[in-house]
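pinging the channel bc i need a second pair of eyes. not urgent but kinda urgent?? the chain im working w is below, pasted from the shared doc
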Amino acid sequence: MIRLYIILLAGVLVMAGCTQPQPTNTNQNTNTNSSVIEGDVMDGHDDEGDKTDIDDGPSASETMDDEDNGDQAGENDKEADDSGENETQVYTNKAIGYSLNHPVNWYWQHFLAGTTENGVNLDSDYFIADPNPLVGFGSEYLGRYVIQVSSRPLSDFADAVNDLTKSSSKVDGIDAARYEGTRTNMVVENQTVVEYQFMRNGQSFRVIYSMLDSDPEQEAMFESFVKSISFES
């Protein structure tokens, strides 16, 4: 009887030693309120040979040649707006020669994109900012705030604003056309769009706001964003 008990006890111990521990998830995203994107938006080269240079925010490990390594956003000073309710962060685009203030805790990205025969020359410079993680270049929605600088004429972008109401405005003293309206179609519903278009030094500029179910407070924040744009003299 004692011998049988010892054999059963040994069997229990062997089975306990063979039990595998349950795996734990060590890849939790703990930085859910970051102003820096922690992943790639798209590959450096796509299947068609297009080339895209991407900057993932002020702490990106790789930056463009025209940016200071490790400080792509320029000064990271935080300042309050006139209401004192929203903090902004300074971003400087040294390649184009402008600076602006964008909301501190937003995701943002700066990159170049374009298609040429040799895949080297890039014809569009983008700055994108959004309170949520960015979807990625090539999607219908890039971000709530988008600045596109291009070598293409503004007439190429006429179709993008033909359903919006046009008025005259200025951006940092430069004459600009301002387009505004609300879109509801097969793709979006109740999307407010505001777009500024102007030319500077032979380049076309588009400063775009788009938001579903927008409200006056968000639109006022965008107008403050536009007013913060300042070009080097």
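so The chain is about 10% helix and 35% strand. and Residues 2-18 form the longest helix (17 residues). — does that match what u expected or am i reading it wrong
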